[in-house]
Amino acid sequence: MGLKGHSRSKSIHVMLVYTGGCNGCDIEIVNAVLSPRFDLEQYNVYLTWNPREADVLVVSGPVVHWTKEPLLKIYEAIPDPKLVVAVGACALTGGVYKNIHGDIPSEEIEGPVENVIPVDAKIHGCAVRAKDVVAGVASVIPIINGLKD
After folding, report:
1. Please, what is the Cα angle at 12 between 64 and 60, to 5 degrees?
2. How far is residue 78's CA from residue 80's CA, in Å, rounded to a whole number?
3. N or C: lower Cβ tally within 10 Å for the chain?
4. 101-126 pLDDT, tens per residue?
């Protein structure tokens, strides 16, 4: 195992993707990752903007038509093993942006994240709380570490 492989086995790299919505969950995700109060880095969880370095993809917002293809490309670029965490009501159900006629997709909303890519953990809320984001990401650490061994 090289230096890069060794360092990645000792830490988790998270990539954030916003697929539409009001940005309320994004603010709480940034609070969870970057603020001194919650500080995911204390758990060896680091933020990356490069999908080739990511272990966990954190997605917020409903998947809108223009973000579907970029989301699929980012997901495919993440090396195996990879996990996806959907954050917030919009990412889980389409939230207030889903079509008023029920499950019929609108022209702009593709739907919840799990309609486009597999989801391994779900964090409920509108907007989510930063402590729930920390708990949700922490819940997949044992899974990803088990897959890395």
Report:
1. 15
2. 7
3. C
4. 555 556 677 888 999 999 999 999 88
**Mean of the per-residue pLDDT values for the chain?**
82
Q: Please give the distance of CA 104 from its chain centroid, rounded to a whole number.
A: 25
Tokens of 81: 């093993």
* Cβ–Cβ < 8 Å for 45, 21: no
What letter would DSSP give residue 101? Answer: T
Q: Which two tokens stand for residue 68?
A: 């579907």
Q: Which helix (H) or strand (E) holds 85?
A: strand 83-87
> What are the structure tokens assigned to 145, written together?
């570490």
Q: Is 29 exposed, middle or buried (0-12, 13-18, 19+ CB in 10 A)?
A: buried
One CATH from 3.10.300.10, 3.90.1150.10, 3.40.50.12280, 3.40.190.150 for 8-143: 3.40.50.12280
pLDDT for 77-95, tens place per residue? 999 888 999 999 989 988 7
On whether the CB atoms of residues 78 and 48 are closer than 8 A, the answer is: no
| pTM for the model | 0.85
- The CA distance from 81 to 29, in Å, is 22
